[in-house]
Design a protein that fits this description.
Order of helices and strands: HHHHHHHHHHHHHHHH
Mean pLDDT: 79
Low-confidence stretches: 287-293
Number of domains: 2
Structural class: mainly alpha
Number of strands: 0
Strand content: under 5%
Largest sheet: none
Distance between the termini: 70 Å
Shape: globular
Number of helices: 16
Radius of gyration: 27 Å
Length: about 425
Amino acid sequence: MQMSQLISIAVASGVGLLVGIDRERRKGVGPGRRAAGVRTFLIVALLGVLSALTGAPVMPVAMALAVAALAVSAYRRHRSGDPGMTTEVALLATFLLGVLSSSAPALAAAIGALLAIALTLREPLHRLVRQQLSEQEVHDGLLLAACALVVLPLMPDRALDPFGAFNPRLVWRFTVLVMAINALGYLALRVYGPGRGLPLAGLAAGFISSSAAHAAMGARARAEPGLRGVALAGASWSSVATFVQLVLVLAVVSPSLLRELIWPLLAALAICATVALLLSAGSRPVPADRPQVPRRAFRLHEALLIGGTIALVLLATAAASRWLGPRYAVATVALGGFADVHSATASAGVQFNARAFPAERAALAVLLATVANAATKLALAWRGGGAGFALRLTPGLLLAIAGGAITWLLINHAG
């Protein structure tokens, strides 16, 4: 027997045991107990993987029909006492995961663990859905799921413009990201309250997209003026994540360029973190007579407007890069910062590794890309939260960039 087959069997056994242990604890005792427990689930998972390993296409189908018949029989026997179908459906899912483990054991293991967790969290999930979630929250959650799981896969994944920049799936992914960040902020507000919730959400969102975080925090501030201070702090914390990621990107792409830029990046990071801390400390608490949680997790029309803004930025950047041509490589990298500073920084690192850029030009490209990215953040913050919101964020971003630039100049041109 090959090692891959042993791994598949081991994964199927693990999935069967994980799911079966939970079902064994819930099957009850005596004549009215459920039909399937830990042994049944283990055997069904093994049936799945072994039927797939035989190589006969008809075997998994025949075994699936047999397992389905057993599940229907068990359900008919116990439906008078407990009309639920969780055990029977879990039995079919365990069989299919056994089949899947023959070709994709890692995926089968991950889904099996998720299934076991979902079964174990039965009471908390029921309590959440029935008692803690409002109708509006359920509506917003379903809308976000539809946008991410239904609409996103249907979007064309190719550029539709002459410059190769407007990719509908990319733009829609950004739009969904804005909605998800707003939903994350909403959840953080419910769990931690405004003082800590939005700053934590902003920091976490910044590792995905600081530009989207600025847009989402601006939209939150516009919708709930009482949360303006903590929304500003959340946007600033997302910029802290930006500089952390720049260090990580260069560490992977070009460690030699990182050695040139580590102190400027750390200086910018320190300034950005200081500004975020000051904004967090200076934000006014929400009055006790005001609701601390917004009425909506997100607003679709605001996310669509922000997605349209980023689409215009992508088109303008690509057009400018096309017109400038390869002779102006630094400018092209800098323009890329309007869309994504991390990709632009990685490009500068690659150019530096290939000796196409000396250290000074690579540093200049990263600096200009950071400036361009700051412009995008402020534009999206303006779009989401208005001019006042963007203007409050401007000094901190400019100070962080200036601090990094001055640090680089002092280190490389001292004396």
